[in-house]
Design a protein that fits this description.
190 residues; alpha+beta; 3-stranded antiparallel sheet; 7 strands; 19% strand; elongated
Length: 190
């Protein structure tokens, strides 16, 4: 059986931390692209960037000063733009209400994260319904449905309208997002 690459990536945390150097970020971002089902255009962009990185690394190792200067020029001029391109590609494949990029508190912590603002907006707009096991009233209470024994049961009881996702927060603070159409888990954070 052939393993299928995922079309999106869930919030799993850090991919690269403690550096903003393109020389460190590009290999990490390229590695993340390998695990995704990219469009033809995205694959071409990734191949082009991968080739440019490999060429710059070879030039860096050269004994000739002019060849090393070409590598330096790439790292100083084009590598930053390539990092941005890869970030955009990776963000296009982030799970719903998630993104690929750096965290708010640490600009050098790149990875897959939940966008709290997008999630709150999804709840507010009625795209996400929330079940909180502790019964507390919070910013999400407008989307909460009470009385369901499980998320799957609640998904059947909720009117279809615009609701596409069901988010469950258990008493330990673990968050799970389900696709309401098929009942499958989209992502979970423990």
């Amino acid at each position: 059986m052939r393993h299928r690459k995922p079309s999106f990536h869930g919030p799993t945390g850090t991919v690269s931390h403690g550096t903003l150097r393109s020389e460190d970020l590009l290999p990490a971002f390229l590695s993340e692209c390998e695990d995704l089902r990219l469009t033809k255009s995205e694959r071409n962009q990734v191949r082009s960037i991968s080739a440019a990185v490999a060429k710059a690394e070879r030039q860096n190792e050269s004994l000739r000063a002019t060849t090393q200067e070409k590598a330096e020029r790439y790292w100083q001029e084009d590598a930053s733009e390539d990092c941005n391109t890869l970030q955009d590609i990776l963000s296009n494949h982030a799970a719903p209400f998630c993104y690929f990029g750096n965290t708010e508190g640490d600009g050098s912590d790149f990875g897959w994260w939940v966008s709290r603002e997008c999630l709150e907006m999804g709840v507010y707009d009625g795209e996400v319904l929330l079940e909180s096991s502790n019964g507390s009233k919070d910013a999400y209470s407008c989307g909460r449905i009470r009385g369901a024994e499980s998320a799957k049961e609640a998904m059947r009881e909720v009117p279809a309208r615009n609701v596409r996702y069901w988010m469950v927060i258990n008493d330990h603070g673990n968050v799970t997002l389900y696709d309401r159409r098929n009942g499958r888990e989209v992502w979970g954070i423990v």
